[in-house]
Write a structure and sequence with these properties.
4-stranded antiparallel sheet
Length: 97
């Protein structure tokens, strides 16, 4: 399993719009092959900052299957204009032990 982690900085005064768009966009990602789960949390100290946690079966499910899909184009259309700056996305794997 792979954990995708993205810290999302949302343009000031656009948080409500972002959350509404994210609800719509989450339906897209939930339908993708290899998707396991998703969490979006808002920072208490910095309300324009969110953390997105997505669990995938494999790295390629995100980097190829999702990112190179038609569905990703709709995801981008719904969400990318809210980010400032554009988020850094990293992937993590569980360490046994």
């Amino acid at each position: 399993m792979i954990l995708e982690v993205a810290v999302l900085s949302i343009r000031p005064s656009m948080c409500r719009e972002f959350e509404a768009a994210f609800t719509q966009a989450s339906r897209i990602i939930r339908s993708m092959k290899g998707f396991i789960s998703l969490e979006l949390q808002r920072c208490v100290e910095t309300p324009t900052q969110y953390i997105l946690l997505v669990r995938w079966d494999a790295l390629e499910d995100h980097t190829v299957g999702f990112r190179q899909s038609r569905e990703y184009q709709e995801w981008k259309r719904l969400l990318h204009h809210f980010y400032d700056p554009f988020p850094k996305v990293e992937h993590y794997e569980m360490i046994d032990g």
